[in-house]
């Protein structure tokens, strides 16, 4: 069976919903769904996990990949601490890493969420003294082009989904490289009926929003003959 991989941040994760757009889209396509949306997730996490799937042969040219980039300052750090046990379809801010320690996720303000004092110290210091938006945007542009070349080399069908989190794509002019693989969905965010918290700048979707995005992506795939079915 063909597979649909979706990689992104909390926008693509089970953030107070029981179903996400990736799962709904996979059902419409008749694909197996592989969920890599991750609350507090970073672009570095996207590159790491998707690169791993491709190199291991678990993501192939027969499959479909949707990339939902997030804000550029986010990162992940290895920690010797063991994460708390995660529940299916629940946001996990500290991910298990193989059989050794965990991966600690960083975004603005995440130091307040950690359970361990040394992790809080690291994240707070990093945010205050070692985080530059300009520097991270420079790295993003370079890493995205490396990643895109990697996907082309392995012939992976990919759609880059533009959201309120991934403004840097358009700011860097990168959407011109995507052609029909670039899908801008930011225009729908002003609709309160699809927002998880109406009229608040969360950028998250309720179930109606996930269903609408899944339908719009499905139409985009058919229109551009991306799935080849």
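Q: What amino acid sequence fits the structure above?
A:
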């Amino acid at each position: 069976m063909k597979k649909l991989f979706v990689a992104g941040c909390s926008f693509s994760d089970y953030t107070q919903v029981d179903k996400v757009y990736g799962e709904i889209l996979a059902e419409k396509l008749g694909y197996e769904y592989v969920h890599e949306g991750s609350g507090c997730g970073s672009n570095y996490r996207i590159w790491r996990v998707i690169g791993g799937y491709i190199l291991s042969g678990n993501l192939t040219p027969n499959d479909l990949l949707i990339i939902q980039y997030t804000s550029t300052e986010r990162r992940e750090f290895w920690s010797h601490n063991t994460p708390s046990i995660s529940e299916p379809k629940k946001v996990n801010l500290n991910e298990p890493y193989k059989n050794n320690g965990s991966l600690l996720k960083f975004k603005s303000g995440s130091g307040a969420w950690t359970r361990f004092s040394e992790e809080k110290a690291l994240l707070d210091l990093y945010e205050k003294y070692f985080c530059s938006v300009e520097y991270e945007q420079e790295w993003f542009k370079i890493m995205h082009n490396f990643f895109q070349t990697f996907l082309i080399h392995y012939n992976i069908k990919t759609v880059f989904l533009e959201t309120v989190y991934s403004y840097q794509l358009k700011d860097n002019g990168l959407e011109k490289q995507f052609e029909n693989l670039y899908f801008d969905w930011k225009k729908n965010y002003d609709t309160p009926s699809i927002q998880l918290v109406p009229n608040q700048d969360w950028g998250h979707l309720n179930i109606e929003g996930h269903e609408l995005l899944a339908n719009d992506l499905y139409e985009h795939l058919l229109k551009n003959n991306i799935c080849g079915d």
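Q: And what stands out in the fold?
A: The first strand starts at residue 3 and ends at 8.
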